[in-house]
Amino acid sequence: MEADLARTESELLHVVAADGDFLTEVASHLIKAGGKRVRPGFAMASAAVLDSSEAAASINVIRGGCAVELVHIGSLYHDDVMDDATTRRSVISVNARWGNQRAILAGDYLLGRASELAAGLGTEVAGLLATTITQLCDGQIQELQSQFDPDRSVDAYERSILGKTASLLGTACRIGALVNDLPRPVVESLTEFGLAYGMAFQIVDDILDLIATDEQAGKPTGNDLLEGIYTLPVIHALSDPDVGDELRSLLTPEITDIQRDRSQALVRQTTGVQVALDVAQNFANKAAITLTDLPDSPGAKALRAASDDLIARAHAPL
């Protein structure tokens, strides 16, 4: 898969190239910063789950993975504007370097390029990507609706991450399967895998925001608390009989960096992180079950390994 991921990098840079040098530079900024390319990897692995030959991915599979990745990167441009972030993937954020207006427009440009790629892969893929962008926006809006709400429910949290994270990973798997014309039952199983994995992925990311260092996370941690985004470990910690009241008193729109640090310490004193880890593990197990009937192909092995590695990633900073 390494060679296919290298092809993906080249295709991403090719696709975002604009007529002007400035837009090309802004649009390719986070691409050049690197990344694990989980979504293109899932598209390629899903396309190959019935193939034992380890053949190179077709150009359409590569482009399908690129379409999903560009939606993801475009959403990061917008997220960093909303969060007033200064770094992303250990480099200066687009908004910090070029300003909010250019970051927003560059994010829109990336979404447009993603839509062009999807349109070239057929109407079903184009419609799927459009729906996914809608789900992503809906999940983000639901999150904003719960901003600075210490009574945010677990159900509201899970609905939000289903839209803003899991839907895109489910779509990555589905596009890979669709483009390679896999049987419909396999397409559905892979979609369910991506959705379940995506839920676990976001929960782990939220845990790391509370327990990892900036270097481990590759971005500033603790930002969710400053932004009033109360994730699963925090939701459970708020009901803790020993620290819940103090934590609630700290979680206000006026929260300072010192209060953020104290809040992180309080959450770590509770079972909130462990409860969230258990929920993430359950979603990872659900993802693994969807692959049970697939052959032991390189593609299926890669997806199974991704579920195992995800939970290990959450345990690393503990």
Keyword list:
single chain, 318 residues, mainly alpha, Farnesyl Diphosphate Synthase, two-stranded antiparallel ribbon, 1% strand, globular
Written account of the structure:
With 318 residues, this protein is mainly alpha-helical. It has a single domain, classed as Farnesyl Diphosphate Synthase (Orthogonal Bundle), CATH 1.10.600. The protein has 17 helices and two strands. The protein has helices spanning 2-16, 21-27, 29-32, 38-47, 59-83, 94-98, 100-119, 123-145, 154-179, 184-211, 214-217, 223-227, 232-237, 244-250, 257-269, 272-289, 298-315, and strands spanning 87-88, 91-92. It has a two-stranded antiparallel sheet. A hairpin with a 2-residue loop joins strand 1 (87-88) and strand 2. Helix 1 crosses helix 5, helix 4 crosses helix 9 (154-179) and helix 5 runs parallel beside helix 8. It starts with a helix and ends with a helix. The mean pLDDT is 93.
